[in-house]
From TrEMBL:
Keywords of this entry: FAD, Flavoprotein, Ion transport, Iron, Membrane, Metal-binding, Oxidoreductase, Transmembrane, Transmembrane helix, Transport
Domain FAD-binding FR-type: from-to ranges: 319-424
Family named by the database record: Belongs to the ferric reductase (FRE) family.
Signal sequence residues: none
Lipid bilayer topology: Multi-pass membrane protein
A biological-process GO annotation: monoatomic ion transport
PROSITE patterns: FAD_FR
Compartments where found: Membrane
Lineage, highest ranks first: Eukaryota, Viridiplantae, Streptophyta, Embryophyta, Tracheophyta
Originating organism: Escallonia herrerae
InterPro entries with a match to the protein in the record: Cyt_b245_heavy_chain, FAD-bd_8, FAD-bd_FR_type, Fe3_Rdtase_TM_dom, Fe_red_NAD-bd_6, FNR_nucleotide-bd, RBOH/FRE
Record's protein name: ferric-chelate reductase (NADH)
Catalytic reactions of this protein: 2 a Fe(II)-siderophore + NAD(+) + H(+) = 2 a Fe(III)-siderophore + NADH
Broad class of enzyme this protein falls into: oxidoreductase
């Protein structure tokens, strides 16, 4: 009821306030880390109180740097659970919330960063300020201790001693970036939603941080190489200290990082995506040898982000082992396929979500992200993704399905779907959705969601203006995907829709090829299962339980290991027991604890999912099957009747021209106009520039990420 929703809203507000308090404290620790006050007073005091025969000096690092983030992640899981309960209730209402941060979300185009909101730019500047502050403070304190006399004691010149000090500090600053590097790529994160972020939209932060990390670590390595060369200590490059920093491990980590870094630049990534994909798995080598380089005690500073990433990665591995029930495929003449999967009613997702697909018959190791084009509200037992031929993998898939001797079933594994916790399109009077080519796919899911809101919930929905650009007439058949394959769910008479479709490379409608859309139905297989939440209906709470229990088990195992094996040898001196052995044992226990707790949670929920799978498979028996082999439902809907009469009436076709986006947007006089754009970089920048020009305060810009 309303009371329980208000209580959950209040709980969410309390959790968010507590999270912000802890996070501010965590950032404050990073600000204070390079200062004398922290290193000479605070840290020794904390170590004196926390050092024990169970954890040694590692205990204080875990308490200060690891525990706060895992605590936030656990709270985030509860926050997400309440959010899903409330959003489930909101499906029965048409309420919308005012966006208080609208002015801060206005776009800014920055060379090298692309389109960023003002709030993103503010945080980016603050983060760079943190790095500059930390580096300058480290240097100020360390350089003050370097004198001709102190340098001579080590047989060095003053500049050589300062180079040595600067090289070390560059590594320390790189560690700050590394601490945040894995948060954006944790797809099922319970931390990102607390800050209104999704993994897909946060990939750019991972890219920024990756470039900064590798720049600093490369400078760290180069400076040390120069220092060793000028001081005739080249043999240092081959040292692997038992109880100190391992230079060899650092070099291996740096080489692995450089190989990854070289393939991340846009030109290489676009032209040789598979090279980028495979080399990025070197992150395992990079992180392993990084920990061996600095030791596990210091590595706990960077542990929490990577720990949460490992939990997410293992859960994705468990989900990907199951073959998914593929119902049908709609094959479009513009080399586009819509795949329709069976899903459980328990699984809900928001518009613009993405899902990762693997088709073993094409490649057993390649996973590709695609935008979900269905609505879980409108189509509770089906999930669809739209795939346009853009590379070798998608081309093979299209050829496989479109060939005359097509397959009668297809093995598919998935990860996801992943998307924003909630979306609120109802706050706008008008939605202007601008797309180029396959950029229309996220808008298909938005449109279907709005059909549900207007037809089932009787909500007042915003007017929709879809401005879409295609290169050829055959691409216009993508507009057919705006409506689900189910006739019962395709009524949108209560929606005010206007489609402005531009065909840029043709002067008139091409009638050379008959443009039919075909539907291919697949045979059911008893071993296939519908898509279900990987951790069941209360997946957020289960995720929090995995994070907490796995970390507690890790602390228990490490405590026992330290107390009864390491401490009798080392006595907390950190001068006898091998750093590398300690690091390997810690990493082994982390992996074991995550695997045990995540597997137990997954298997527990799999039993419940299995019951629903049986029910869905019984219902799947109604799937049309005219012959033992796969066969085509030939839709026989030519472009002239695309896709139904009502949609055709709402569509204006323009040939041989591009949309005048400035005119289209400035003509909108409603008080609140949501401007969503998805397509080529040039298009996104043009729309962002119009919305940030200051000439129309009613335009609220949002760039939509999409995958095809």
């Amino acid at each position: 009821g309303e009371t329980s929703e208000r209580e959950m809203d209040a709980m969410k507000a309390i959790i968010r306030a507590l999270v912000m308090l802890v996070f501010i404290g965590y950032l404050f620790i990073w600000v204070m880390t390079p200062t004398n006050a922290y290193r000479q007073k605070w840290l020794p005091s904390i170590r004196a109180k926390t050092s024990s025969t169970y954890f040694g000096t590692q205990g204080s690092t875990i308490l200060i740097y690891t525990f706060p983030i895992l605590f936030i992640a656990a709270l985030g899981s509860v926050y997400l659970h309440f959010g899903k309960k409330i959003s489930g209730g909101e499906k029965e209402s048409c309420s919308s919330k005012k966006n208080r941060l609208a002015i801060w979300k206005r776009p800014v185009i920055i060379q090298g960063l692309g389109i960023v909101s003002r709030i993103e730019l503010a945080f980016f500047i603050m983060f760079i300020a943190l790095l500059v502050w930390s580096f300058s403070t480290y240097l100020h304190i360390s350089f003050a201790k370097i004198t001709p006399k102190s340098a001579a004691k080590s047989g060095e010149e003053v500049w050589e001693a300062k180079l040595d000090s600067a090289a070390l500090r560059l590594g320390l600053i790189g560690n700050i970036c590394l601490a945040f590097l894995f948060f954006p790529v944790t797809r099922g994160s319970s931390v990102l939603p607390l800050f209104g972020l999704t993994s897909e939209a946060s990939v750019k932060y991972h890219i920024w941080l990756g470039h900064i990390v590798m720049t600093l670590f490369t400078a760290h390595g180069v400076c040390y190489t120069i220092f060793w060369a000028v001081t005739h200590q080249s043999s240092e490059m081959l040292k692997w200290e038992t109880t100190g920093v391992s230079n060899v491990a650092g070099e291996v980590a740096l080489v692995a990082g450089l190989v990854m870094w070289a393939t991340t630049f846009p030109r290489i990534r676009r032209k040789m995506f598979e090279l980028f994909f495979y080399t990025h798995h070197l992150y395992i080598v990079f992180m392993l040898f990084f920990v061996l380089h600095v030791g596990i005690s210091y590595a706990c500073i960077m542990l929490p982000g990577f720990y949460l990433f490992l939990v997410d990665r293992y859960l994705r591995f468990l989900q990907s082992r199951q073959r998914i029930r593929l119902l049908s495929a709609r094959i479009l003449p513009c080399e586009t396929v819509e795949l329709n999967f069976s899903k459980s009613r328990e699984l809900s997702y928001t518009p613009t979500s993405i899902m990762f697909l693997n088709v073993p018959s094409i490649s057993k190791v390649q996973w590709h992200p695609f935008t979900v084009s269905s609505s879980s509200s409108l189509e509770p037992e089906k999930l669809s993704v739209t795939i346009k031929v853009e590379g070798s993998w998608s081309k093979k898939l299209f050829q496989l399905l479109a060939s005359p001797n097509s397959v009668d079933r297809l093995d598919v594994s998935i990860e996801g779907p992943y998307g924003p916790v909630s979306t609120d399109f109802l706050r706008h009077d008008t939605l202007v959705m601008v797309s180029g080519g396959s950029g229309i796919t996220p808008f298909i899911s938005i449109f279907r969601e709005l059909i549900y809101m207007s037809e089932s919930l009787k909500c007042k929905t915003p007017r929709i203006i879809l401005v879409t650009s295609f290169t050829s007439s055959s691409d216009l058949t993508m507009l057919d995907l705006l409506l689900p394959n189910s006739a019962a769910a395709s009524d949108f008479s209560k929606l005010e829709l206007q489609v402005e479709a531009y065909v840029t490379r043709e002067k008139q409608l091409s009638t050379e090829n008959k443009m039919n859309i075909q539907t291919l139905w697949f045979k059911p297989n008893p071993s296939d299962a519908p898509i279900t939440p990987v951790l069941g209906q209360n997946s957020s709470l289960w995720l929090g339980a995995i994070i907490c229990s796995s970390f507690l088990f890790f602390l228990l195992f490490i405590g026992i290991l330290t107390r009864f094996y390491i401490y009798p040898i080392d006595h907390n001196t950190n001068k006898i027991f091998s750093y590398s052995t300690r690091a390997v044992l810690n990493m082994l226990f982390i992996c074991i604890c995550i695997a045990i707790t995540a597997s137990a949670s997954f298997l527990w929920n799999k039993k419940d999912n299995a019951r629903e799978t049986k029910q869905i498979q019984n219902m799947d028996g109604t799937t049309p099957q005219a012959s033992p082999n796969s066969w085509f439902y030939n839709a026989d809907r030519e472009l002239e009747s695309l896709p139904q009469h009502s949609l055709l009436q709402s569509t204006n076709l323009h040939f041989g021209e591009r949309p005048d986006l400035k005119k289209i947007l400035f003509e909108r006089k409603e008080s609140s106009v949501g401007v969503l754009v998805c397509g080529p970089k040039k298009m996104r920048h043009e729309v962002a520039g119009i919305c940030s020009s200051g000439l129309a305060a009613n335009l609220h810009f949002e760039s939509i990420s999409f995958s095809w």
